[in-house]
Each structure stands twice: as C-alpha cells, then as structure tokens.
Amino acid sequence: MKENRLMLNLLSILCLVSLLAACAPAPAATEAPAADAPVTLTYLVDDSQNTQDTTKALVDAYTAQHPNVTINIET
What we know:
By secondary structure, the chain is of the alpha+beta class. The chain has two helices and two strands; from the N terminus they run H-E-H-E.
C-alpha cells in the first residue's frame, strides 16, 4: 500500500514538472531580422468574392504601413 502511494506521489510530481516545462517561454532568437529587409508572405484564402475583397483591403492597408512587406494572395 505504501509503495502505491509513493508511486502516485512521484507520478503527480512528474506530471506537474512536465506541465511547468511545457508552459515555459521559448528561448529568444539570437539574431533578429533587419527591420528594413524585404519580406514576402503568401496569404491563402477561399475563392469567394467577399473574402477576396476583404483580403485585398487588408493587404493594401498593411502594405501601406509596411512598405518592405509584399503579400501574395492565393486562392
């Protein structure tokens, strides 16, 4: 009976440590990309006209504020 309780306590501690390790922040990147470096992104959307119009408006607004970013819209 005592062995079962000890095993249950060890298993509980192991689960708690695993949970805390999974929630730990990821290590920071050692080198950040330059702020003015050109970036190209691809944005996949469905082929409905409403979605394409909304996506185009969002892409235009974003690229107006971030001229170094190019976003290719794919349907």
